[in-house]
Amino acid sequence: MTLHRFLLTLLNGNRKAYERLPTSSARIPEGHGKQNALRRYAVPATLLMLLSTTVVLLIKLTRLKVYSPMDDYQMLNPFPVVQERFNGSYSNSNAVAVVSTLYTNSYAIATAVLAHSIRGAESSARLILLYIEGQVSEEALCISRSAGWELLAVPRIAPPLGGKGVRTQFIDQYTKLHIWSLDTMGIKRLVYLDADTLVRQNFDELFRLPFNFAAVPDVYGPGDARGFSLTFNAGVLAIQPSSRILENMKKTETARYPIQQAEQAFLNLYFGAKAARLPYIYNAFIAIKKRNPVVWEELKDELAIVHYTDHKPFLSDSQPSNKVLTPDEMTMAMDEAQSKYELWSEEFGWWRTAYHKMMNDNAAKVMQCVEPGARVG
Description:
The chain has 377 residues and is an alpha/beta fold. The protein has helices spanning 3-12, 34-64, 108-120, 138-146, 243-249, 262-270, 287-291, 293-299, 327-340, 345-369, and strands at 96-102, 126-132, 150-154, 189-193, 197-199, 213-219, 228-239, 276-277, 284-285, 305-307. The chain is globular, with a radius of gyration of 26 Å.
């Protein structure tokens, strides 16, 4: 077996590998130069073989490190896949809600744009925004309220182990689990949206799902072995809230999952075998376009919810991370995003258009909330 075929066999398991056709039919006379060739190539060939084997083993070990909650499953969730079905009216009901979260001032404008896009898609569900009391400024809360959110202060849910190992941007994300407690407010069904999402089309059909929990499978960029993954992204969730589920979640101290991905990894373990997987149109991470532009193009006209996972068009690298940007600074941030990330120029343009629509309708209310001296650009 040639070295080329040996390596392909190791990489591909039992799959048959194609060999190249010979390029010449000339034969060296038997025994001619045999001893010299052996001496000349023995050491380099051995070294090459060892190097190749090491590379193959490293690739295999790297692949083994890709975590799957389905392979390391724990029976933590005693609740059924299909809960009580809600048979009421969804058109004008206080029993359904779109819920988001606000943990930092810099996302306040994003929540306002999100709320405006939800109403623009003609969803009449309640809009409920959870925030951590004392962590978000009055200015940021005022901007969110001006766009139509009902504000609900909730206590911070601290990550396990004091947050050791959790990525900084996810340190507050366990607080999201409070969405399961909204049954105490009369909510029968809810759709949770991260603040870095944008609604493009109505998605009220998600309120009629019979499943306890539904989410969209995750997608990772080029070069990441996980690719189009079985695990789901926690930026868009369609759930039936239940305080019983929340209390059960808090008792799962023995859960094993990659803690750096915080609540998303936890939810993948907790709901892994009992989660309904939704189409990408309900959580269209812009990473899909980077991974496979053909898939993105196929879905683009049907996208209901776009998720700005890889970069936020409303944040600027040159601005403080916990600051509400002024309109001039927001323009700068949007310009920066579209020029720096040309691949997503169109998608960032969607957010820019939504921002201007929100400001055209709510500028007076928003500007009443901002710090003195801010002006509309």
